[in-house]
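User: quick one
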Amino acid sequence: MSSQAGEKWKGYAVRDIKNWDKFEVIEFHPKQQEDYDIDIKIEFCGVCGSDVHTITGGWGEPLLPLIPGHEIVGHVVRVGPKVTSFKVGDRAGVGAQVCSCFKCAPCKSDSEQYCLNGVSTYNAKYPNGDVAQGGYSTAIRAHERFVFPLPKELPLEEIAPMLCAGLTVYSPLVRNGTGPGKRVGVVGIGGLGHYALQFARALGAEQVVAFSHSSNKKDDALELGATDFVITGGDDFAEPWKGKLDLIICTADVSHGIPLTDLITTLGVHGHFIMVAIPDESLPSLHSAQLLSNGALIGGSHIGSKKEAIAMLELAAKKKVKSYIELLPMKDAGNAVRRVKDNSVRYRHVLKYVPLSSSSPPTDAWCA
Ligand SMILES: NC(=O)c1ccc[n+]([C@@H]2O[C@H](COP(=O)([O-])OP(=O)(O)OC[C@H]3O[C@@H](n4cnc5c(N)ncnc54)[C@H](OP(=O)(O)O)[C@@H]3O)[C@@H](O)[C@H]2O)c1
Ligand SMILES: [Zn+2]
Ligand SMILES: [Zn+2]
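Assistant: Done. Structure below.
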């Protein structure tokens, strides 16, 4: 049997990539209930750049109708019989992954985000064919391994965007050695970038350089912990930074707009350029000679593990990492995704679940 017979939840879905900003309330079947599953009633969901790539078809034709959203927080309303780490009523969150194989080397070594059989939070299918739908909705069901406990010091709405945007930069910062004495560059100060600046400082980096394509975000970047602000326009922006950085995390959501070769010159010997952004188009081409002068290494990074999510949230609470958010009711999802596409959000939209209308509580209730 596929989804639990009779179980129907609701969410805001896109039906057609040409109408990617037109959301419609649909009913959907959650995945089949299994022993380790946890159901969370959603209170807030962040709006990630990846939601926009998916609903616009930038990464290919999605599974439609599609409910996006993978920065999900709320309270646990049901736990499967084998769940041990959560109980009904707990605060809990889900990021961009809801399942994996649990058996492969990445799964067994706290790198489950690299499982070749992982299931993304939306635009994905479970092995039995159940469709995974995201957090612009009433509830989410996920395996315990992909449900994060949330620190009580941080407000739910501020935690939501950390579960994808925060984690996606925290993981490569840590895996590439950010700490005291290190010099880190962050390219693109958006949802991901505004956390990258803060987490780089929170991890103890000595210098954190914000690279942005205009001067608009200078004051914010400095407030977020950047020690320096560099506008990436112009031919010689990289000149004063040659050889100065150990690591660059690139979150800029454009392909040809990324001055890749110039940025690489800012790395010291064997410095790392880590791409976390996934623009629709390929990266600019690069001649291998451009990697030789400093022996630079180019890599990528995909979200983060549960272990890293827990460590990130602990650090965020301890070092008072702030989420700069703009709250909107979930019904305004269309407006939120348009503003992400326009690059005008400072720095993350978070959708708040509110009942669809006060006159329809019975049909709006996600589970009676
Ligand atoms: N690897 C992963 O696992 C993972 C996880 C989540 C998201 N992502 C990807 O990461 C990227 C960023 O996501 P996000 O949510 O942070 O998006 P976002 O809030 O829209 O931020 C992207 C930033 O890119 C820069 N940018 C946008 N348009 C530009 C242009 N025309 N020229 C130069 N720079 C431009 C802007 O920074 P400035 O204004 O400062 O230049 C903007 O703030 C997306 O591609 C998303 O799909 C990847
Ligand atoms: Zn995301
Ligand atoms: Zn696996």
